[in-house]
Specification:
This protein is 16% helix and 20% strand. By secondary structure, it is an alpha+beta fold. The protein has a two-stranded antiparallel sheet with strand order 1-2. Strand 27 and strand 28 (230-233) form a beta hairpin. It is rod-shaped. Residues 279-294 have low confidence and may be disordered.
Amino acid sequence: MGHYQNEEKQEQCKPCPTGSKQPKTGQTECIPCDSGTYQNMEGQSECKPCEEGTSQPRKNQTSCLPCNPGQYQPDKGQSQCIPCDYGKFSNGSGSLNCSACEPGSYQSDKGRDRCLPCEKGNICWESGCAHCRPCSAGTEARSSGMTNCTECEKGHAKQSESSALCQPCEPGTYSNQFGLSHCMTCPTGYYCISGSDSPIECMKYEICPPGSGQPGECEQIWHRKVDNSRCLYSDTFIAVVSVAAAVALILIVFVIIRLAKVNPPQSSIDERARLLPSGNSNSSAQTEPSYTGL
């Protein structure tokens, strides 16, 4: 066994070469080792199975190949290594098994040599994750590789899972609690800057309608604040305007009267001329009689 002879009239047999076997006697040839086996010695009756962590896809081989990183083989005599499954990895050659990704990491492909950290806004709280899960509304994962979500801080909110991180409240809104999904509208009489966790009360002469991101100002002399949302004319301004209007009206009436006296209407002039005696009557009435001498 382990030998052959393919020539006539030979005194002895030849040993089978490496990578082959011959389990019988009186044979004219050797048998190549099958895939998953090997033989590194001559004159052998059997081939050796590949060890765990190795494989051999070809026949007639003298050695087996260690599994590449990202693969494993727990059994002997195998022709192929097995790629690591989703959520697992192997980072060395000749692995007998794969390791599960640690919490905070994942692997969404097969046959990988490492896991990836969960991105911001996503978490994995258990080992062997194929995918990380997004944080729900009102929560976030502020850095990569997180295993749990934290609530949004005051002054911030996150509406849905589609947003990775909590966002500061926009001007005109605020959030005074942890873990809110929406910021609240700033009430009347207050204003809220970006990222406000509480409304800021307007000062005197400032106006703040609902949703104010910054206060408006009423002019202190001419306006007064009404219901904290709008400016109206003050009593002083109204009084000054009323007096000015009255004075203007008096001046207009006075000018009209003066103009009427200086430039009377043509009809009044004609009427006065009609009432005076005509020119001929005045001549006869004023002419004295003449006398002739004796």
